[in-house]
Design brief:
Blueprint: H1 9-21, H2 24-31, E1 41-45, H3 56-70, H4 74-77, E2 79-83, H5 89-102, E3 107-109, H6 118-126, E4 130-134, E5 143-149, H7 160-169, H8 180-184, E6 188-189, H9 192-204, E7 220-223, H10 230-238, E8 245-246, H11 248-251, H12 271-279, E9 284-288, E10 295-301, E11 304-307, H13 310-327, E12 335-340, H14 346-354, E13 357-361, H15 365-377, E14 381-387, E15 391-394, H16 402-418, H17 423-434, E16 436-445, H18 449-460, E17 476-477, E18 480-487, E19 492-493, E20 511-518, E21 523-531, E22 537-546, H19 549-567, H20 570-573
Parallel strand pairs: 2-3, 2-4, 3-6, 7-8, 7-9, 12-13, 12-14
Antiparallel strand pairs: 1-5, 4-5, 9-10, 10-11, 14-15, 16-22, 17-18, 18-19, 18-20, 20-21, 21-22
Length: 578
């Protein structure tokens, strides 16, 4: 065990015990390979081991060295650091601060719990060199994470992710494990209240031109998922004269997440909020995930409850952004809206009909945010961008923001209510104008990376002879002909001969998008299958579109069934499926 040079006695002892027990299987999981930077940073279980999230000291050392080497005046510009309420979050935020202080870098360490969007907001307003948020977002309670923002206030992308990873490996001898200087150093500044004041002022700038609180009674229920959002959401909505009824059992931060073991609004975690909404006859449920960068919503009506999907909310917000821009009199040719490639194609259809620019990018807000900055450089305005995983970007923060999304949704609901309409009826009007789009997104669970590779290898070698739209990809699914394939892992796009090179950059993981069509009625599907950068999942994003909502709705379950039984071979590989 001479390999294990570990100053933290608790984590060293944890690995030592596994060694003495001869548990080589668990040691393999814990120790190889080292945890790598994924979606803008690190995320994993709070356990000992190089594959687990307990290597914060090394991560901060590597990040610090890399930032100093890459960002001009990094020492004086400083780093913004925030943390949520999870176990170890405060300690690790202080440790990150201590590492940067040790290297002579100014530190803006937020005091108390903050929501994730406050970190990129602070990086932008303070012109900081970088930012770090300690959070695992909506992951289970035993996880934590380390999210990194670059000097442009957007999550890191290549080449910085690799550069930071390499710097971590080159700086594995910690200089400090003490956080004592964090409280005493004159270089560790507290700007928390000043930045919050500026943030709420920016939120007030999101006021809809036509917004007016409804004179008729409208009731909102809000859940914070045992996270940090309650004080931020109530203050932000309060500035618009909107009050919410909090789900008290989930209102206060609690790292044990007692009522929602998997605190993700996408994962059927809204039952308590919906039950309360029914009891108090509320019109809508608003929800933020634990670090308040994601948003979800439900509408209650006489026939039941509509839980909006991320794509439906994205479409609603996109239409809202388009209408505001159109009514301002600005040329629509200068409006751009961004969505990830796995998100709905309804905004694409909207853009084609209305004359604004639609931009597609890879999955994740590190790409959405950086794409927004690139498009603005070309002379466009980008008031909105989204991804289907309930992430929505408004205003100056080029990252998803659950507080801003809550404000935008509540304003729209209030305005529509005064007109005798609802958000759901607004969505139905959009379907009538742009076509009916329906999504069915989920995932398969697979803890073995080799099986994942085997599944994707088979999809790329489905036939012995080359035929169809791709070299060896499947030619049909659920009776639909596959009409196009884009493989962002191998770099293949069947719609772009003769080079067959995709317009989007390659993905770091497996990612294939299939387009299919039902010839007799023109009903179409887009099916994207990809691996997750933070979870042991093969995710799929399925959307059907057509003139007949019933035909589309009936088609999607058949596609999912064949996807699982044939393409994924879920029974063969014992894949989990919610």
């Amino acid at each position: 065990m001479s390999l294990l040079k570990e100053l933290n006695e608790a984590t060293r002892s944890e690995i030592q015990t596994l060694w003495e027990k001869g548990d080589t299987k668990e040691l393999e999981r814990r120790m190889r390979p080292r945890i790598e930077f994924g979606t803008a940073g690190l995320r994993g279980k709070m356990e000992a081991g190089w594959t687990r999230y307990e290597r914060l000291e090394y991560a901060s050392q590597g990040l610090c060295q890399y930032v100093l080497s890459q960002v001009k005046d990094a020492s004086s510009r400083g780093i913004v650091i925030g943390h949520d309420h999870r176990y170890n979050s405060e300690r690790w935020a202080q440790l990150t601060a201590a590492v940067f202080l040790e290297h002579g870098v100014k530190v803006y360490l937020y005091r108390g719990l903050v929501h994730t969007p406050l970190v990129p907001f602070g990086v932008q307003r303070l012109n900081a060199a970088c930012g770090v948020m300690i959070t695992a977002s909506h992951n289970p309670k035993n996880d934590n994470g380390y999210k990194v923002y670059w000097e442009n206030a957007v999550q890191i992308i290549a080449p910085h992710d690799k550069g930071i990873s390499d710097a971590i490996k080159s700086n594995l001898n910690p200089k400090t494990w003490s956080v004592d200087q964090v409280q005493s150093s004159p270089n560790c500044l507290d700007v928390t209240e000043d930045i919050k004041k500026l943030y709420f002022s920016a939120i007030e700038q999101l006021k809809l031109p036509q917004y007016a609180p409804s004179a008729q009674p409208i009731v909102f229920v809000n859940t914070s998922m045992h996270g940090v959002s309650h004080p931020f959401v109530t203050k932000a909505l309060g500035s618009y004269g909107i009050t919410v009824n909090p789900v008290k059992e989930q209102m206060l931060p609690d790292p044990d997440f007692p009522t929602v073991p998997f605190p993700n609004p996408e994962e059927k975690a809204l039952d308590l909020a919906i039950e309360m909404a029914k009891n108090c006859k509320a019109n809508y449920v608003l929800a933020q995930d634990p670090d308040s960068d994601r948003f979800s919503a439900c509408e209650l009506h006489s026939t039941g409850v509509t839980t909006f999907t991320g794509d439906q909310l994205g479409t609603i917000f996109a239409a809202q952004a388009f209408e505001i821009y159109r009514d301002s009199g600005k040329p629509l040719s200068k409006l751009a809206i961004i969505a990830s490639t796995v998100s709905s194609k309804m905004v694409e259809a909207m853009a084609a009909k209305e004359g604004f620019k639609f931009v597609e990018c890879l999955t994740g807000f590190k790409y959405i945010g950086n794409t927004a900055l690139d498009i603005v450089e070309k002379g466009y305005e980008v008031p909105f961008g989204y991804e289907e995983a309930i992430g929505f970007m408004f205003g100056e923060v080029r990252d998803k923001d659950g507080v801003a999304a809550s404000v935008m949704f509540a304003q729209l609901a209030e305005t529509l209510h005064g007109q005798g309409r609802t958000v759901n009826s607004y969505l139905e009007d959009l379907y009538k104008r742009y076509g009916y789009f329906k999504t069915s997104n989920s995932y398969f669970i697979c803890n073995d990376p080799q099986i994942v590779d085997t599944i994707f290898f088979r999809l790329r070698n489905y036939h012995d002879q080359k035929s169809g739209p791709g070299p060896n990809y499947p030619q049909s699914i659920a009776g639909l002909e596959i009409t196009g394939v884009v493989d962002l892992t191998t770099g293949y796009d069947s719609s772009n001969p003769p080079s067959y090179e995709p317009s989007l950059p390659l993905s770091s993981g497996h990612m294939i998008q299939f387009r299919g069509e039902q010839k007799f009625d023109g009903t179409k599907i887009v099916l994207t299958i990809r691996t997750s950068g933070t979870e042991p999942k093969i995710k799929y994003y399925l959307e059907g579109s057509g003139k007949d909502s019933k035909v589309v709705s009936e088609l999607l379950p058949r596609v999912v069934s064949e996807l699982g039984s044939d393409w994924m071979q879920a029974l063969v590989y014992d894949l989990g499926h919610p």
